[in-house]
Amino acid sequence: MAHELYTRTNQKLFFAGLSLEAWRRAEEGQAVNAPALILAEREACLFHLYGALLGLCHEVAGYYRFDEVNVPRVEAILTPTVLSATPSPELAELVELAQQSETWLAQMISAYQALFLPPKAPAKAKVDPTLPLIEAYSLDEEQPLLPRAELESWRQHLKTLALRFRETLSEC
Questions:
Q1: For 139, which of 2, 51, 53, 107 is 20 to 30 Å away at the CA?
Q2: How much is the pLDDT for 172?
Q3: How far is it between the farthest Cα atoms of the chain?
């Protein structure tokens, strides 16, 4: 493999695609361990999407010769502090997308970070022994796992962003 910065981004996008395809096959299959396969592929896809985003950050940092070219975490690059120290239109767009919680990029970063949180037991209502037996329901249900289509959408957005950035980064 060439030692160009873009190759890592491309590789991670490809690996995310492989994970999504394996996830689709697991959903269609009748295997006993299908739920575990789906969860494993979901996590693998998130891992590779995060790696692709990091690779894209490294591409931008490498092109402009920023100090952040070897930073191992996206969160350390996509900050207003780094942007003010090393301004570029590509980095500005990435920082803006990462800072707004409703954007696909912020949701992707948040989903990746959630992989490292410990599992939480569902909240249970406290029972008052003086009350008759009335069943209480908690509204704090666990959020369902992200659907495959959502991660595929993130992959397509990231791929489009990388291609668009590369057009503006080239010295033609």
A1: 107
A2: 47
A3: 78
